[in-house]
Amino acid sequence: MEATTDAVAQAEAAVELGIETLRGDIRDRILDNICRQMPCWTKMSEHEQRLMIGRCDEVAGKTVREAIKVVAHQGFDHLVVSTGKWTVKDGIKLEVGASGSVDDITKLAEHGAKPAVLVLAEPSVFFGQRADAVADKDQPDLPIDEGDEAEDGDEEAEETEADRSPVPEPPARETRSRRTREPADA
């Protein structure tokens, strides 16, 4: 049990949360602290691991969105809006658009024409990642293209390269039309 706890602590220390990479950092912590610690992870196929990585990515994205909402709104009623046209003359005049849901209409009606605080938060700023999460390959890469063979025999290397060249197209055949006949003495 201590070995697992030590591995979790090392994984947490290795991934520091960043602003632009927050979603990917959270995904990596989920993978490193939960998924990759399970004994069945190494027994999963590459496809199954990719599905698990995708699920962790979705959870991380939802977590970031909800965390931004909680921090930005801090328990106040809020509307998710898109900013539109704005002008600066005797203060800032701003047009915003929001969904016409009953919930949003009710919040706006209850708030009325009183002052409000506009928090400009864009969750997509936090959706980067340091690197793609990679599943373990089902089979290792095969050493097909290695330079050692070309040094042994130059003729064999040239033959191999010739074998890999694209197949040339057959020359176009000339066809005569049935309507035109050439004289026999031509």
Give an account of the 3D structure:
With 186 residues, the chain is mainly α. 42% of the residues lie in helices and 8% in strands. The chain is built from six helices and two strands. A two-stranded antiparallel sheet has the order 1-2. A hairpin with a 3-residue loop joins strand 1 and strand 2. Helix 2 (22-33) packs across helix 3 (46-73). It is elongated.
Order of helices and strands: HHHEEHHH
Distance between the termini: 97 Å
Helix content: 40-55%
Number of helices: 6
The low-pLDDT segments are 159-163
What's the gyration radius in Å?
Answer: 32 Å
Structural class: mainly alpha
* Oligomer type: single chain
Strand content: 5-15%
Broad shape:
elongated
Q: How are the strands of the largest sheet arranged?
A: 1-2
Tally of strands: 2
Average pLDDT level: 74
Described by strand count, sense and barrel closure, the largest sheet is: 2 strands, antiparallel
In brief, what are we looking at here?
The protein is mostly helical.
SSE diagram, text form:
Elements: H1 2-14, H2 22-33, H3 46-73, E1 81-88, E2 92-98, H4 102-111, H5 148-152, H6 154-164
Antiparallel strand pairs: 1-2
Helix pairs in contact: 2-3
